[in-house]
Design brief:
Elements (H helix, E strand, L loop, with lengths): L1 H14 L1 H15 L8 E4 L2 E8 L3 E7 L8 E9 L2 H4 L3 E2 L6 E10 L5 H34 L9 E6 L4 E10 L3 H17 L33
Helix pairs in contact: 4-5
């Protein structure tokens, strides 16, 4: 009877393993700052906003998948709390509710590169300047709390040259829930300003240049008709 009870107990413990770990995960979530309702997380391979934290499962309003950008797709996903022990938990909004994002603008060779840089930077200051100042306050708290690098939250424009164009990259800070809308506004205003730059700055596209061609030899064969 002792052996039977031991085997049965082991079987029950194995069967309830996932439930026990999920309850432990729920306790860990409530007692720490892993995530809370309203946070945007990536948990168990699912990205979305947390709408409920239950004893066994966390409920997420999913974003992405077949929908491009950080937009809801309408699907609600319930994930076992045990995943907080099994996989990394990515929190987009816990201590620092901002993200660094970037856009790339291809500029044609021969354009005024400094004018392009100035236009892109001025648009960034106009669109995301308030985000930068607000994010700097949060980042100062992060630096004191976690002893990390005191990174700049101001917009930054860098330039690299490749085979096809001079690539201007704008790096900026944005609210984690407004990334797509802000990127759309940045592109719209930058393209408008570049179009009005009196052709001093032109956008580039992929081009192919034929630099040489091997000689071609053509031989014509004369057909002789014979009458019988």
């Amino acid at each position: 009877m002792t052996v039977t009870l031991g085997v049965a107990g082991a079987g029950i413990a194995f069967a309830l393993q996932e439930i026990i770990v999920s309850i432990a995960g729920w306790i860990a979530v409530l007692s720490s700052d892993i995530y809370k309702t309203g946070d945007r997380v990536l948990l168990g391979g699912i990205k979305g906003d947390v709408i409920d934290v239950g004893i066994l499962r966390t409920t997420i309003m999913e974003i992405g998948q077949w929908v491009d950008g950080d937009l809801y797709n309408g699907r609600i996903v319930r994930i076992a709390n045990s995943f907080v022990f099994k996989e990394p938990v990515y929190n987009y909004s816990s201590d620092f509710p901002f993200l660094w994002d970037e856009i790339k603008i291809p500029i044609k060779y021969g354009s005024d590169y400094e004018l392009a840089r100035q236009i892109i930077y001025e648009v960034a200051e106009e669109v995301v300047g308030d985000y930068s100042n607000e994010a700097q306050v949060y980042w100062k708290v992060m630096v004191r709390k976690f002893l990390i690098e005191d990174a700049s939250t101001q917009p930054m424009v860098t330039i690299i040259a490749n085979d096809n164009w001079v690539e201007h990259t704008l790096r900026y800070v944005v609210d984690y829930k407004k990334r797509v809308l802000v990127k759309d506004l940045l592109y719209t205003k930058i393209l408008e300003r570049l179009d009005n730059s009196s052709n001093n700055v032109e956008l580039a596209s992929t081009t192919f240049q034929l630099v040489g061609m091997p000689p071609i030899e053509v031989k014509l064969r004369k057909k002789v008709h014979e009458e019988s």
